Amino acid sequence: MKFGLRHIRYFIAVAEELHFRRAAERLGVAQPALSRAIQYLERELEVTLFVRSKREVQITRAGETFLKSCRGVVNSIGHAVETTRMVHSGEMGSLRIGYTDMAIAGQLPTLLKEFQEQRPNIVLRPHHDVTVTQLKKLDEGELDIGFVTGPISRTGYEQCPIQSENFVCIVYESHPLAGRNSIRLEELAHEDFVHGSSKDWEQFYSYLFPLCRRSGFVPNIVQEAFNSAGILGLVACGMGVTILTDSVSNSISSGLVAIPIEDVTEQLQTVAFWKVGAEDGAMDLFVEFLQQHDVHRFPADTPKTY
């Protein structure tokens, strides 16, 4: 069959007006051209769509059936066009978002909630991963943007700071340091530590180890866990102490105590991290939204300082 959307629109107009002249005026075409288009459509379908007389035009039962289908086609095409335009502009789409423990315990929930309220047609697909895994997924195109421990030096990427947090020591409630209002980092030199693995928590370790070395020791890590929940669970068991951040310590369970470290002024940064040129409509809007919350954007080749 060789007919297109134009023939379908012509047919719908005639079916709704039941008058060729009015249908032609509605469509802005000449009446003879409209009549020829309907005749062509009937030949292609091999059915009679209208019964014509000098006084009136009546639609046939076959025509009524065809009309229902045609309206569905036109509505579907209209929806497809509108959806395509919305995706192109960023008003509709989806974002695959990675996040770390610190991100989800800190500012990220508030940011995502506010963005979702502003852009309800953009589907957010957040997924927890450590920083090193997020970077791999970003390289392989499996994530659109990651909220990671930064800053990170990597060509071809951009980043935007989201939050900066103080480090705190977390101990079990019967630990000798549990009653202290604050400690110095050097007081942990002979403690057993619980932390994430050096492979998975590489970026966090790039903060932790220089801080400890500056205080004259290397942390003795005796137990490892995948995430902060596991770390805190092992600390609660009395297996050691740990150093995490404010956001995580704000949600610790009973049996644990968070102690400020008075001589550590450095803060752990969480950054939004994405590939240069990867923006589409939805990403453009999300990046713009993030920058409105912290305009101090910096390139991804900024070196780390301690």
From TrEMBL:
Organism of derivation: Ruegeria halocynthiae
GO annotation, cellular component aspect: protein-DNA complex
Gene3D superfamilies: Periplasmic binding protein-like II, Winged helix-like DNA-binding domain superfamily/Winged helix DNA-binding domain
Lineage, broadest ranks: Bacteria, Pseudomonadati, Pseudomonadota, Alphaproteobacteria, Rhodobacterales
Pfam family, one: LysR_substrate
Family recorded in the similarity comment: Belongs to the LysR transcriptional regulatory family.
Protein's UniProt name: Transcriptional regulator, LysR family
Keyword annotations: DNA-binding, Transcription, Transcription regulation
Database matches in SUPFAM superfamilies: Periplasmic binding protein-like II, Winged helix' DNA-binding domain
GO molecular function: DNA binding; DNA-binding transcription factor activity
HTH lysR-type domain sequence ranges: 1-60
PROSITE patterns from the UniProt entry: HTH_LYSR
